[in-house]
Amino acid sequence: MFVTSLSSLGSTIPRGTRQSSSSAKAPICEVRDLVCQPCLLYLFLDVVNGLSEFFEAEGLDSDNVAVWFCMFNNNQHQIANQIKEFSFWVDSFQTALRAIGNVVMVLSPWNNPTTLTRTWCVFQIYVAIVTNARFEVTMGKTQKQSFLQDIHDKIPFFDMLGTIKCEASQTAVPSDYDNIRNILKPPNLKFADLDRMVFRVFQELMVRTVQTQIETSVGADKARWHFVMGQLFLAMESLMDAQTSFEAAVAIYENQAPIRWKAVMNLGCIAETQGQPKSVWQSLLRQALDNQINYLGCAHVDTLETMFMLGARYNRHDEFALGMPLLVACFETGCRLLGDKNPRLLYVVEAIGSGHLHQNEVDEAEQWLQSGYAHAKDMLGLDNPRTIIFEETLALVHVRRGQYDCAQRIYRNVCNQRCRIYGSDEMGTRRIYSRLGEIHQRLGAYETAEEILLECLDVATKRSELFPQLQFIVAVRLGMLYLAMGDLRRAETHLSQAHQGLVQYDGPKFSEILLALYRLCLLNMESSCLDRMDEIESQLNQAEWFEETWSQFFCNGCYQPICGSIYSCEKCPKFVYLFCRPCVSQVKYAALCTHVPTVAFTPPARYFQEKRLELLAQEQKWRLYKAQYKAYKAYCATFQVPLDEQLEEAV
């Protein structure tokens, strides 16, 4: 291997040439010059070992590759009694890298590379981007062995995602950090973009490394590496690749193999995320859980993981009577088995908190979520994916309380973190970004909300095979935005399409479908259009929502689903704060709004009955009117509608 040590980055050698040397061999191909990016804290032999691994993987002859190192921290020393300006070092390195065109970063340790703790090393990634140089990463044999051992468990991968953060890097010369940060601004790059580039090439290296293990293994070992690959793809949120890997593992494993049922469990989770029927994903998860209980018992980490996955998915489909007992049992058994502070239980804590929230137990939810968030922050740090998921759910608590400014800050941070880790077009990132758009709508920032939601809808539609429901969930939010803006035509288009699309995946009673239906009802009330009255009444009955309670519209005073008329403020942005009649009487709105809520929306089941009675009276169809009014009074009696809100009988 030919290594040239550069004492000054100003000594630039064009790509495809090198300095003369008594040991020099024939000139190398231009694509075989590269800049090696270790950290000066690394052991040099570890760097050599990492490069040897890279050359072998690339099929390169190491004796015919020139590797360029910056061996000294030149900017920290006087050269010929002169201190060079910061710009000198920047220009010198950019010129050198543009000429050489290839960068390899040596990772050590694999899950928190020391290289990325030094801002000048981070700067080299930036230069690779702006010069369009090839950027790769490599590991030495020791770190590769450590990686292959650690990656059997998905937790170290998540921890790595939270640990690598270029923005937290440092420089020996403090002003260098600020100068490098300023360099990123003109091309509109952020440290998070550099993180994303590192994650991308690192994930490619991980996949190649595990694929090699698959190709060189047989039998159970081969199946085990297929399973590891599936977990890796799942952590990267590449669902279709994960499904292929887990199916390959299941095809090899015998029925009694414990890891087979972990693969089946993951296939059930993927099926649910892809919008497959409940009968499909529930069958897979139940099959996995029953076999794990039989072979491993209830007090085993594999069994507990499946209990969590099944319970969380029941909750996502509003089946809390099935989901919450599983989650609580999982948590209690996990505490006895692992200890109540074990990081593996954090997802369970978040799911229990989320379950309480979606059952309108806001105080209980906040207690679970704040406790879990505090533990995650202390144990894992703010950038770990397991910490970020608590922030995401806590934002929903703030939304329920009408604290939209707090929710906006949290969602923005979560979006930035997910962009850093998973990328901007990943479906989970778009789901959170659409929530941020919804918050902008509630704050009255309609243009920003529209820009965000249209962008999310475009991405969700183009990638609908990954998460088919997301395009319709975003359409519901976009429809509500247009309803708030008074653009009833576009509101009608998006809400109708969303309702039709969601029904085909989840049936008529799913919470997101009810939201679409509620907003269609509000649209008809706003427009006073009765053309679709029969159709919407039929949809209300199919959803079993022919009653007074708006189960998905929550009072910002008591945090419960609003029963009876919804009261809103006509001076605040439309639909930003919603209150029930008792909270208006108790002036609970004063904590959020200085105006008195005066706009009332009647529950749709009652509204359409009253409109039908008005039409019958206008047409003087008194026999039909009398029968309809009798049914209306029975409805009012059943749901205890206040007398002063009831329609008087026409004479």
TrEMBL record:
Bias kind Polar residues: ranges: 1-11
Domain of life: Eukaryota
Region Disordered, annotated ranges: 1-21
Gene3D superfamilies registered for this protein in UniProt: Tetratricopeptide repeat domain
InterPro entries xrefs: NLR-like, TPR-like_helical_dom_sf, TPR_rpt
PANTHER family, sorted: AAA+ ATPASE DOMAIN-CONTAINING PROTEIN-RELATED (PTHR46082:SF6), ATP/GTP-BINDING PROTEIN-RELATED (PTHR46082)
Name by which UniProt lists this protein: Aste57867_8587 protein
Species annotation: Aphanomyces stellatus
